[in-house]
Amino acid sequence: MQDLTQRIKAIPEVESVVGKWGRVESALDPAPIQMYEITINYKPEYQLDDDGKRIRDKNGDYIRLWRDEIKNEDDIWKEIVKAANLPGLTGSPKLQPIATRQVMLSTGMKAPMGLKIYGPDLASIEQAGLQMEKALKAIPDINSSSVYYDRAEGAPYIEIHLDREKLGRYGIQVGTVQSVIETAIGGMPEGSTVEGRERFPIRVRYARELRDDPDVLKGILVPTAEGTQIPLGELATFHFVKGATMIQSENTFLVGYVTFDKVGNKAEVDVVHAAQKHIDELVAHGKIKLSKGVTYKFTGTYEQQIHAAERLQVVIPIALILIFLVLFFQFKSVTASMIHFSGVFVAFAGGFILVWLYGQDWFFNFNIAGVNMRTLFGMGQINLSVAVWVGFIALFGVATDDGVLMGTYIHQVFLKRQPHSPLEIREAVVEAGMKRVRPAAMTTATTLIALLPVLSSTGKGSDIMVPMSIPIFGGMLIQTMTMFVVPVFQCWWRESALKREQKKSMIANKNEHEE
Question: 148 - beta bridge partners?
């Protein structure tokens, strides 16, 4: 632990490192005994004054505390992974302290993704776990250095086997020997001491030098009924054995965990599906041999995303239907509602275009005032998470604003002018459209400007808000086309309706003439 913390603290961008080894004596703490937890604080990218403002040097440039090759926090994390690469240690995914406990409580593991292996005994579970650990390291989407099976066995134990014949010869009961061993090695509570508001238990046991060596333990004296003292080594034999480090169970079955992490910004659902397909094929072809009664199941926080995606399959159609009904109640026409509803499809395409552009290295890859735009807006690969789809739902609600603004005024102009020819219809549409271009542009501009601080945010909650705002920004940027599309569709619809009316009137006049 000391070597690990010193290695990490040697990184120039790291401000402080605090390590923890062990776990609380409670079933509510899912952390295994052999897990190290290290909390790391980074230095700010630029030197700040007492008010939190950046400090400039003599040349007027901001004083940067990070090295030139370190562009963002992910680069610091890569340096930490290199420094913490020690033989026998396997790193877990980068998580915030509170998020770590949330992941552990929701999945039972110390990683967002993993494999649970159920079995009748620890030996068969470990046999399957070691095979699957090796198989998962071969999957390209999984970081091979993060794959680790939590060893269930291997902890050293000293077993004391009592010789009942010798106990009977000396007239010593088994309970007496066990009580002596418990008191001498483990200690017995004798009370508590009160110091202010604090209370500490008092335990009585042998001094450390009398219980830290197996040979010394043989010298523990056991009293007989006659008052004589017999060394424990004459009443029992000592054996070194390997046993369980931590026994875990779930759904009445013993369970072992194989944890792993994804590579880069791969979607967790895709990574787990690829891993499950690979493991299933190996089991089916007999390359992974499972003992009788051993089963496995992939688990992790991705399951919550799957459940949310199933709900979104119902929520998104309902949202689209409600938007269409609102438009229909406004215009009292299916055709007019469809014309204004077309803005949803345009915005939908715009949202996907920006999501794709965020993952392209060339997009916005330039500097302004020494700040890279991709770094400023945190651009990278964006997976279609729940936050992105929630952003699309919000986009659907505002995507029709410009179309409704334009279409409502066109309708008012038509009621006022009552055009009777295609030329008059076009003049009315052009007049209404020109008067509503500026309000429509202002409506879109205010939405886009309001989203800029969200897109460039890096604090708490930005991992949810940024993916949510990306489709809204892209959709609103592209849906400005509706300022031109809606008038064209309106003109085409009005001219078609006029032609139908003229055709009906010509047929009616012809029938009257024939009569």
Answer: 259
